[in-house]
Amino acid sequence: MKQKKIVSGYFTDDKDLIVAIKKLQARNIAIADVRTPFPVHGLDTVLKFKRSRLPRAGFIAGVIGLCVGLGFQAWVFTKAWPLNFGGKPNFSLPSFIPVTFELTVLFTAFALVFGFLIRSKLGPGSDAVLYDEAVTDDHFQILLDVKDSNEETMLQTLTEVGAKGIQTHEV
Amino acid sequence: MYKQFEFSQKLKSRLLILIVLGALLAIGGILLNLDDTHRIWANVLLNGFFFTAIALGAMFFIAVHVLGESGWQTSISRIPEAMSLYVPVGGLFMLLVLVGMHNIYHWSHTEDLDAILKGKSAFLNPVAFSIRTVAYILAWTVLIFKIRKLSLASDKSDNIKLFNKNRTWSAVFIVVFAVTSSTAAWDWIMSIDSHWYSTLFGWYIFSGFFVSAVAMIIILLFTLRNMGYMQHVNEEHLHDLGKYLFGFSIFWAYLWIAQYLLIWYSNIPEETIYYVKRLEDFPNLFIINLVLNFVAPFLVLMARGTKRKINILLITSIIVLCGHWIDTYLGIWPGALGHATFGILEIGMTLFTLGLFLFAFYHNFAKAPVVQENNPYFKESFDYDNIR
Questions:
Q1: Residue A107: closest CA among A59, A70, A72, A71
Q2: Which residue in the set B261, B267, B303 is minimally distant from A86, CB to CB?
Q3: Can you tell me the ipTM of this complex?
Q4: What pLDDT, in 10s, does the model give residues B212-235?
């Protein structure tokens, strides 16, 4: 397995984290990842993340769910097994709406959850490495990949921007 | 930074022209339709109720945010605040309806009532109806003036007690509103179809006028920005207003389908008559109502980007506002007239009340600073963003 070297440092306040990221970027140091206990407002803007395509996947899945729900009910109640419910026509749109709605929501939810798990390589059996368990509590951790630049500069810059617990990990 | 709004002479005269034009058209319409008193009074009720309810929805908007201690809305809260002050003016229209109630409400003809209406007469009789109408208007007006007074006092002092008092009075308003918004909807709109009733009608009407109030806030915000005020309102605030418009349009559609579906399923003639009248005599409006109030805002505002562009928001708001005017029309006309009418009377009355509403809004908006700078959440209002 290929060796990977990661430099990490943490902050105890999200505002310090944002300031430090801006300083690192000003010195042209690429940030591999940032781990926080909760979603930090403005972090994705600072890291210049592209907007997720997840909503689009959800929309497409929702449209499919809508068509499946409506089409399946229309087929069952008019072709496959027509039944007389209180003298109402076999094709009764109002009675299809709740089921169609639920299937739309279900398909969207599945697309969002599984799309997210697949794209971020999460889920059962995935290999998640925590360099610092406190990122689930009160540490805001910056990870730098050593292959991006010199290790010495990285360690030095991290100290300068005020990071604590600076370490090098080999994975 | 926060430029004080001035009700310019130009705007004033434009609105006065709108009011006079509306009044002239309305008077012309009344003279042309003197024999059709049902139509005249239905117009008074429609526009009186529609704009009063929007003002009331604006007050609910403030109260619910004050109670929820939300930060973002403090940057625009003076807009719904100034809107809410229209309630006493619109209340005059509702008091006027009391004079002509025989032309709208079947149950008010106490001399010849059938068994069902006799059974309802303990609640639905002219005296109790008048007392309730006056009580609603009085209670809302008193609470709205009280909350406005506290809000104006907070401009001069940064005492936290004012904020806490405001919260208490907002809670009182919510409690009063929870009961009166439902009963007022029963009294003013549902009882037009005197034999028919629906238990969720109050929320249905509420969801309609609340989303109209949000649409009106967006439209007024646009006009103010166009005149060079409220420049501090940023995309995040627009996004949140857009979410309100989107979410409550869906909420309205949800209540609409909930009411329709149960009546359609059970298929009891006493209940289906409500929809039979609307589907047979107003088939086009019935569909247009759903398209304007649900399909259009749902499809347009689903994407993130459209909620952050004020022009798209403005167009959607106008569509939704027209849609809910039609929705209220559909609540009144089938019961009061039984057939669709649209002419200079309807146009004139709508322009007249719209003009009054806008005039009252700008008049009251000019009286106070455009933002509540002493609100403890004011800074927070600019220190947030909607997650992507």
A1: A59
A2: B267
A3: 0.79
A4: 999 999 999 999 999 999 999 999
